[in-house]
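Lecture notes, part 5. Sequence design as translation. It can be helpful to think of inverse folding as translation between two languages: the language of shapes and the language of residues. The source text, in structure tokens, appears below.
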């Protein structure tokens, strides 16, 4: 297990990048590569990359906490597309950045080219200082579990109207550190403290950390990948959503994900 305090201590030597720097590497159309670590491997990883990556700092914070509600059909279409290895698959979610209160409705699609495409609409009802046509002003979402007419309009606009009824299927919480490569257009995230909640039952993955590399081009090798090769760690798919559904939905077909579930250390607590 790694705490926020321990992670902040390990990040102290890193140089800082601003939100403006980060916008240049938003990569809403990108290739993703994931590596799964036990939390006792985070220290070695961070010590190895300090010269090549800066840490995103927003105001005074370098660790951001997220709350996310995912939506799916009653028969879990999004989950089943992933379980059945469909290359064209998608997820729907509302995400809140707890540090600044920003809220976004998001559609995330994995295409058969290997690229991930993301569509977003801002929903916290706070205007940017400089108007952003990508995020026109919309009424604020008061409850993250509300799949309202504006989210429906977003799905219809991008061709997902065929999915039909969407309902809340999973609540997800985690902490994230974002890194920017100093020498190459690459954005990298470290997620830890992953926790799920659904139907009154909580699960926490206390010993799992996920590193994700995000680039506009796929084949380039970067320093972080060299590090993982040096410790004989191969890229590994890890979907927060499918793992969470597998843990919290007894009715979900999860055969494909059982080997991953068996490798995870997690705690379960039923809400009082």
């Amino acid at each position: 297990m790694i705490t926020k305090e321990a992670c902040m201590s390990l990040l102290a030597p890193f140089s800082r990048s601003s939100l403006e720097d980060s916008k240049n590497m938003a990569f809403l159309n990108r290739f993703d590569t994931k590596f799964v670590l036990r939390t006792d491997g985070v220290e070695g990883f961070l010590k190895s990359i300090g010269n090549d990556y800066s840490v995103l700092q927003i105001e005074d914070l370098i660790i951001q906490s997220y709350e996310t509600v995912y939506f799916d059909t009653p028969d879990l279409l999004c989950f089943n597309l992933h379980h059945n290895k469909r290359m064209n698959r998608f997820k729907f979610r509302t995400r809140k950045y707890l540090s600044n209160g920003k809220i976004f409705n998001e559609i995330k699609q994995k295409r058969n080219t290997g690229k991930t495409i993301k569509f977003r609409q801002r929903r916290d009802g706070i205007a940017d200082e400089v108007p952003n046509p990508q995020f026109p002003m919309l009424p604020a979402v008061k409850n993250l579990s509300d799949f309202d007419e504006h989210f429906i309009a977003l799905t219809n606009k991008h061709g997902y109207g065929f999915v039909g009824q969407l309902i809340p299927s999973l609540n997800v919480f985690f902490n994230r550190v974002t890194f920017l490569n100093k020498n190459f257009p690459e954005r990298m995230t470290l997620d830890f403290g992953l926790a799920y909640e659904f139907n009154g039952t909580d699960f926490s993955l206390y010993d799992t950390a996920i590193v994700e590399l995000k680039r506009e081009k796929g084949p380039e090798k970067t320093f972080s990948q060299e590090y993982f090769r040096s410790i004989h760690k191969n890229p590994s798919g890890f979907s927060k959503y499918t793992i969470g559904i597998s843990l919290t939905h007894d009715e979900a077909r999860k055969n494909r994900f059982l080997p991953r579930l068996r490798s995870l250390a997690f705690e379960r607590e039923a809400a009082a």
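The translated text above is only one of many valid answers, since several sequences can fold into similar shapes. The radius of gyration is 18 Å.
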